[in-house]
Design goal:
Elements: H1 19-24, E1 27-28, E2 36-37, H2 42-51, H3 63-84, H4 91-101, E3 108-110, E4 116-118, H5 125-141, E5 148-150, E6 159-161, H6 174-189
Antiparallel strand pairs: 1-2, 3-4, 5-6
Helix pairs in contact: 3-4, 3-5, 4-5
Amino acid sequence: MESEGGRRDDGFRFGNGRLCFTFTATLGDRGAPVPRERLAVPGDLARWCVRAGLLAEASPVGPATLAGARRLREAIDRAAEQVRTGGFPDPRDAAILNDWAARPALAPRLDEVGRLRWRQEGAQVRHVLALVARDAVDVLTGPARSRLRRCADPDCAGLFVDVSRPGNRRWCSMNTCGNRAKKAAFRQRNPRSG
């Protein structure tokens, strides 16, 4: 699929605030009858790492790494759902998170204008996955845990941390799910408009 400007649209979604939930969004439309797998082939995982700004260029990814990444992604999703609903992560999911989080990860650094960047020399997908796991552990054990939410779009059902002041955000992204809901509500109120 092509987006404006002729760039290939891979469907990756960014901007929901936390790296771990950007990663869980690689399985899109979780609540739909057929979820959308955005990590269909090993190269998709490498492209996600580049698009996320964590690798300068796509490095080779094998089928075993892709399978491990998908297991990590689903462990994060299940663990976050347990924490979100007042429970505790299943020990098997915690073991997956802990295993990845214990591996070498990318190192944070400040760039010349004081923004966060990631040291990328020699970095590989496995370093990115370790960083994703560490972010998930931070979310699930830190103050953000009380603000875990699922998107109110029943097809999306994506995870996010509600950082709004009142704590009543409903959508993982106002630019996608929130906008779709607003348009649908408008069409329902104004059937002749479209």
